[in-house]
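Issue 218. Parser rejects a valid record. Input:
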Amino acid sequence: MKYETDYCLRADLHRLFEQGYLTVTPNYTLEVSDRLRHDYQNGRSYYPLRGTRISVPAAGDRTTD
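Output the parser choked on:
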């Protein structure tokens, strides 16, 4: 049995995730890197998302064949 570790995020959040500016903690909360502000002098709309818990499927729904 293989567990999926992909998250279904909004397109903008997914891009930040892929670029390392956003991560999901083991407790399924969002963390936004300070690098976003440093690299782009921006990110104001994303920093309020820090600590936001994301919804995850039930354990039985997270497996693939």
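Fixed in the parser; the record now loads. Helices lie at 11-18, 35-40.
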